[in-house]
Amino acid sequence: MPIVEVSPGMSIAYETFGDPADPPVLLVSGFGAQMIAWHEDFCHALAGRGRHVIRYDNRDCGLSTKFDDHPVDTGRLIAAVNAGDVPAALAMVPYMLQDMADDGLGLLTALGIERAHVVGSSMGGVLAQLMAIARPGRVLTLTSMMSTTGEPEYGRSSPEARAVISGPKPTDRAGYVAAAERDLIWASRRYGDPAALRELAAESYDRAYCPAGVGRQLGAMVLGGSRASALRELRVPTLVIHGLDDTLIDPSGGERTAALVPGAELLLVPDMGHDRPRELWPVLNDAIEAHTGRA
C-alpha cells in the first residue's frame, strides 16, 4: 500500500485504479471510515468508465498518520461545546476539518496532480466541499454525497441513528464485527446487507483498528461550523447525491447543499440510505461519469 508524506509529519495511505492518463477522481471517505469503504469493485467499475480513481485513508484512520499523542475525551469535548465554551473545546482537538481537507489536496500534489474531480461521502462530502471552497482552482468538479452544510437544522439524524453512532462499540474483533449490523438502521431498506456490513467491519478491524482516531475526527466535526455562506459563493460545478432512505444524515442535508451552491445538480436516489449498496453502483457511477465528463 503506497504511503506518501503530504505535509511535514503527515503521511497518507492511498491506492489508485485505472489509467493515470485518464481524468483523476479523488474519493474521500467518511467519519471513521477507511478507504476500503469505497469498495474495490466500485473503484474498478468507475475506472472502467475512463477515470483514474484515487482512494485514501483520512488522517487518524487506516494506515495514514495517527495522532495518538493527542487523546480526546469526547465526553468533555461535547460538554464544552454544549456549554458554549468553544475555546476550551478547540484546545482539546489536534486538528480541524480544513486540515483533513488539506490532506486530500496534499495527496494530489504528491501524486503530481494539479486538478482533480473530488467525490466525498458523508464527512468526506464535507471535506470535499472544503477542498472546493479553499482551493477552487484545484477542483474540476465537486460531488457531495450523503452530506450536509454544517447548519444544524438540516441533515439531522433520526434518534435511532443518533443512538447507534454515538453509542460504544465492542473492542474485541468478534463483538466489533457483530455490532456492524447496527448500521442497518441507516442503510437502504431495500438493499441493506448485514453480511456486507460484517465483512467490511472485519476487514477494517484487521487492517487498522484505531478507535481513538474516531474520537479525534469527531472533535473536528463537532467544531466544523456552518459552510452556508461559503457554499453560496462556490463556483465549482457541483453534483449533490443523497439517498431518500438516509436516516443518519436526513435528505434535507443534500437538498440544502444543492440549494446553496449556484447551479448545483441534485440527485435524490430512491432505495439508498447512508450507504452505497452494490445494486445502486450503476446509478452512482452513471451520475459521477456524467458529472466529471463536463469539465
Question: Which key terms come to mind for this protein?
Answer:
single chain; 295 residues; alpha/beta; Rossmann fold; eight-stranded mixed beta sheet; 8 strands; 16% strand
The ordered H/E elements are EEEHEHHHEHEHHHHHEHEH
> Which regions are unreliable across 5 or more consecutive residues at pLDDT < 50?
none
Helix-and-strand structural type: alpha/beta
The strand count comes to 8
CATH architecture: 3-Layer(aba) Sandwich
Number of helices: 12
Q: What does this protein look like?
A:
40% of the residues lie in helices and 16% in strands. With 295 residues, it is of the alpha/beta class. The chain has one domain: 3-Layer(aba) Sandwich (Rossmann fold). Helix 2 (74-82) runs antiparallel to helix 3 and helix 4 (97-110) packs across helix 5 (123-134).
Short summary:
The chain is an alpha/beta fold and 295 residues long. The chain is built from twelve helices and eight strands.
Strand and helix layout:
Blueprint: E1 3-7, E2 10-17, E3 24-28, H1 40-47, E4 52-56, H2 74-82, H3 86-92, H4 97-110, E5 116-121, H5 123-134, E6 139-145, H6 159-166, H7 173-179, H8 194-208, H9 211-222, H10 228-232, E7 238-243, H11 252-260, E8 265-269, H12 281-292
Parallel strand pairs: 3-4, 3-5, 5-6, 6-7, 7-8
Antiparallel strand pairs: 1-2, 2-4
Helix pairs in contact: 2-3, 2-9, 4-5, 7-8
